[in-house]
TrEMBL record:
<dbReference type="InterPro" id="IPR020094">
    <property type="entry name" value="TruA/RsuA/RluB/E/F_N"/>
</dbReference>
<protein>
    <recommendedName>
        <fullName>Pseudouridine synthase RsuA/RluA-like domain-containing protein</fullName>
    </recommendedName>
</protein>
<dbReference type="InterPro" id="IPR042092">
    <property type="entry name" value="PsdUridine_s_RsuA/RluB/E/F_cat"/>
</dbReference>
<dbReference type="GO" id="GO:0001522">
    <property type="term" value="P:pseudouridine synthesis"/>
</dbReference>
<keyword id="KW-0413">Isomerase</keyword>
<dbReference type="GO" id="GO:0003723">
    <property type="term" value="F:RNA binding"/>
</dbReference>
<dbReference type="InterPro" id="IPR050343">
    <property type="entry name" value="RsuA_PseudoU_synthase"/>
</dbReference>
<dbReference type="GO" id="GO:0009982">
    <property type="term" value="F:pseudouridine synthase activity"/>
</dbReference>
<dbReference type="GO" id="GO:0006396">
    <property type="term" value="P:RNA processing"/>
</dbReference>
<dbReference type="GO" id="GO:0140098">
    <property type="term" value="F:catalytic activity, acting on RNA"/>
</dbReference>
<dbReference type="InterPro" id="IPR006145">
    <property type="entry name" value="PsdUridine_synth_RsuA/RluA"/>
</dbReference>
<feature type="domain" description="Pseudouridine synthase RsuA/RluA-like">
    <location>
        <begin position="34"/>
        <end position="167"/>
    </location>
</feature>
<dbReference type="Pfam" id="PF00849">
    <property type="entry name" value="PseudoU_synth_2"/>
</dbReference>
<dbReference type="InterPro" id="IPR020103">
    <property type="entry name" value="PsdUridine_synth_cat_dom_sf"/>
</dbReference>
<dbReference type="InterPro" id="IPR000748">
    <property type="entry name" value="PsdUridine_synth_RsuA/RluB/E/F"/>
</dbReference>
Length: 222
């Protein structure tokens, strides 16, 4: 199905969801709804419980339980998960390289710059493919002989950060996703959520290459 363009009506934005074919009418402005949720540790991103663990969807208000998770976080990690009410948009947002994902990571020990440079250079093998270059910034020491780092990934491989640091000889003690593209976790506490504003959804779709600018809304260029 090709792109479906919304027609301007009563000041509404005309736009084209590139390659998605998204129909207008959600919340009166023709955009998908997106929710930011702080997944707690111990919760799985699945509709089916694994070994009795609570699922993300069990924690959501009924209004959002039909939304689709944009990507995953493993059970032992916490942080930002986006959810979208349109499965096609959610799938496009998950495509490798579409949106960078930022993590705060605490590892055991003190990784050398040479070790971190291996992550920055990419080319480490996981699941039969070479990893893309990652952005890695050392933030400082952590309690009990650990190191705090910021890691930005441009792809999605299962348990990628944990497996890469394990290969470097440093076990991950704590992992928290703090941003997906332009959307940050902010001050959301574990188990809390907020719905993105219209402006935030527009920015998210633009950065993902899903939104084609077609006009103005309320006299302001978008």
């Amino acid at each position: 199905m090709g792109p479906i363009e919304n027609q301007p009506e009563q000041g509404r934005l005309a736009f084209s969801m590139l390659g998605v074919g998204y129909a207008p009418g959600v919340r009166g402005h023709g955009l998908p709804r997106v929710v930011a949720f702080h997944k707690p540790r111990g919760v799985v991103v699945s509709r089916v419980s694994e070994r009795g663990a609570p699922t993300l969807f069990m924690l959501l208000p009924a209004e959002f339980r039909g939304f689709y998770a944009v990507g995953r976080l493993d059970k032992d990690s916490e942080g930002l998960i986006l959810l979208c009410n349109d499965s096609r948009v959610a799938q496009r947002l998950m495509d490798p390289g579409v949106l960078p994902k930022t993590y705060l990571v605490t590892v055991r020990g003190l990784p050398s710059e040479a070790a971190l440079d291996r992550l920055r250079a990419g080319g480490m093998e996981l699941d039969g493919r070479k990893t893309r270059p990652a952005e890695v910034r050392r933030l400082g020491k952590a309690p009990r002989g650990g190191t705090r780092l910021e890691v930005v990934l441009h792809e999605g491989i299962n348990r990628q950060i944990r497996r890469l640091f394990h290969a470097l000889g440093h076990r991950v003690r704590q992992l928290k996703r703090v941003a997906v593209g332009p959307v940050s976790l902010g001050d959301l506490q574990p188990g809390e959520l907020r719905e993105l504003s219209r402006e935030e959804v527009l920015q998210l779709l633009k950065e993902a290459g899903l939104l084609e600018k077609r006009g103005k809304l309320g006299g302001q260029e978008v």
